[in-house]
Amino acid sequence: MSDSQDICSAGRDSQWRKELRDAMPAKERTAIPRVEMPHLPADYRITCFEEVNEGLSDEQALLEAKRCLDCPDPQCVSGCPVSIDIPGFIKNIQRGDFAQASAVLRATSALPAVCGRVCPQERQCESKCIYNKMKKPPVAIGYLERFAADRAAATHSDAVSRPASTGIKVAVVGSGPAGLSFAGDMAARGFDVTVFEALHEIGGVLKYGIPEFRLPNSVVDHEIDQLRSMGVEFVKDVVIGKTYSHEDLKAMGFKGIFVASGAGLPRFMGIPGENLIGVMSSNEYLTRVNLMGAGRTDAPTPVIHGKHAAVIGGGNTAMDSARTARRMGAEKVYVVYRRGEAEMPARIEEVAHAKEEGIEFLTLHNPVEYTGDERGHVSMMRLQRMELGAPDESGRRSPVPVEGAITEVAVDMVIVSVGVSPNPLIPEAVTGLDVSRRGTLVVNDVTMRTSLADMYAGGDIVRGGATVILAMGDGRRAASAMAAALLA
User: In the listed set 154, 189, 220, which residue is the last one of a domain according to the structure?
Assistant: First the structure.
């Protein structure tokens, strides 16, 4: 990565950056209002799966880039799990060099167009922006990241080259964000990388878990094609632990293995009625719709089309499920969450979009039972009203039942989105792995190496649940450590 990192780090005090700073005093920069993301109107977007956010124009991006003060000690970079040179790419946008802005991004991120769309910037890089200390909206880093990546893709100015090979083969288990990030970093270092994916599409959760109205498949496919251009090989329909064992991979010549098999095992609440027809996990629902085309009338794996749907949970996956149900024809969609809206882990933008699309939020409520009709189909949910008590271990106030406060709501579909557990296949199939009580792989926090010398891991299989960017950060750390070990 040395050449790419030179792109990122060179010119911190270069003449052109000084000229940009001098051209507009800080007072004028801070007076520019934060850009607003153009988006499709709600009454139209609920009829289709077109991407809701439309992206910034050149003029909008150039103006927003001027807001960046190019701080001497940019805290936004420390807030990014993959340490993107944020002022560097933004200042390249300001001077109109969009290709160079993309190059700076790709020096540390294999998926800039993805991250610009789905990363929680408001809790990461943007939360560290100096504008927050001024009580002003932070620079729209995520919007600008998406702009730079999309602009470079549209003008074919983001082409990547294949580096000279070291002749050392490494394998990746899973093609989600952790696996793709690791693959990109290892390929850039000259390793021969093969990514094994259990499903029939490459992209992992980026394909099956995130709807196209938030992350179009074409965007993911472009990022994957970039990795192919670097020499990464992708193999679909292969289940490591079943199709090939750990010993098989070693026999095939792979000197290092990175496990990024995700957390695809859904959790349920264990309440009465969860086995009724029409009650399903968000994993199943989104996978059927996103990956298997369940929205089509001729779908080989159709999904129930409820008219009154409830989604249980308050994370981004819950928002995705609720907004998908609306697009699939539900006339009424409820989001049921046991805490208040302020405690929701979902992105503020996703909650706002859901409200615009007519989704009703039943916060401070928790399901205690589902009842069904004579056909065994869910027809009602019983909700316990909650109130917030003392903070729990996470620092959030714990929900406490309000005695006797039970509400019944008619529903014909329930999507449970209360968390996932790690895929158990690798931990069960590979002997010698240190596995936690939660079923996650135990790794060194710095190197991401497991208890086996040739096996590293990252993403949900280690964290139990992670954002795209945190998973990518795991992949980058694992790539750095494995490369150092294999080249020693």
Answer: 154
